[in-house]
Design brief:
85% of the residues lie in helices and 0% in strands. By secondary structure, the protein is an all-alpha fold. It has one domain (5-458).
Length: 461
Amino acid sequence: MEETNTSIIKHYSIGKLFLAVLPTIFAVLLASMYSIVDGIFVSNFGGTAAFAALNQVGPIFMIVAAVGIMFGTGGSALVGKILGEGDRERANGTFSFIAYCMIGVGIVISAILWFALEPLLQALGVTETMMPYCIAYSHILIPAITLFMLQFYFQSFLATAQKAGLGLLFTILAGVTNIVGDALLVGVLSNGDPLKAVQGAAIATAAGLFIGGVVPLIYFACKNKSLLRLGKPLTKISIVLKTCGNGISEFFTNISGSLINVVYNSLFLYMIGDVGVAAYGTVGYVNSIFTAIASGFVLGVSPLISYSYGANDTDNMKDLHKKSLILVVIFSVVATVVIELLSHPLAAAFSHGDDVLMQITVDGLTIFTLSFLFKGIPTYASGLFTALNNGKVSGIISIVRTLVFNLATIVVVPVIFFHVFGSSYEAAFYGVWYSVVFSELLATLMSFLFFRGYKKRYHYA
């Protein structure tokens, strides 16, 4: 043992807790901006069809990200607990083995996607108009999939290694690379050609992923001043199983999110065509910003909970849980108000002068944003139980929230709106937007039931 558990456990005021997790929040937020930046440039320089194509192919890369997030969150919870117990050598061996396994998985996924891409896109309902754009974008990004996964993996572990500020720096460098690449390749060199626009966006994203994935890999492979370093792995299959068990909730959250995106895209494509997919794409981008901030907070506070859990410091766990809930509620309310006020300029950024797209997007944002009042709590609840190495409960929260509640409300709520508010196409259309609000409300109520049911076991309340 190289370090005592008490040396990495700190007690935070609510202000200091917020500042402690702020670098991780910004890091996750900036990482999520890749697709948003791509969308802004492509929608304005490539047109509606090219922009809609990015939204159609997006679920594939969300699933890939889900694998990296699973290894990152699940592994960091396990490693954080080991660090809390004071065994740094075992923590490094565990960290290294998980990283090597994930790299291998990334290479396999890239090979499978390369050969199965077109049938997969057809299964997702990609139209003939959008197919060339989807293929062009994907063929550039598929070879960078392992880097995509590594970026999410290291975001989790830089927080666990108490180097969240360094993680933010890596992400800023990656983000700047992506933005400059988009400005040059899409804004200047595409000349209004939709195909060149999506290819340029993909190249810019791949360049950013190289910075976000390779630079942290080099950092951890070299001698450094953090709590973790890549080296000789602790080769036990139980480590991977435990990691996947811990992170399964985050994996299913992203997988389910991809499925829900497919459902929404299909609904809007059926109801109003490409413009509906484009409108949902804008709303999805705003939602991804909220989700990134909430996830970044959870990612930042999770190592603190894992350290305390490993050290059996129940007083600190109670304090962290209480203050985390307060911060989540404050953020949820503030985010809802801000996005409601900014709905018009946000919609305008993606509408490129299309008045119909603008109006549909504003209507969708105004309704969808109400769900932000409830999204924060279930996100934190899932992360809390992951940090406590209880992947089962975390997985139940995520699966029920994203699959059961989301799919149920997207079927039931539009039907209710259709019959209660007038048997019209418009009533059902608004019901689709409102479905996510009711889904997240149910998820919040479920989260508090789990908080109450497990407080005696983990002593966080």
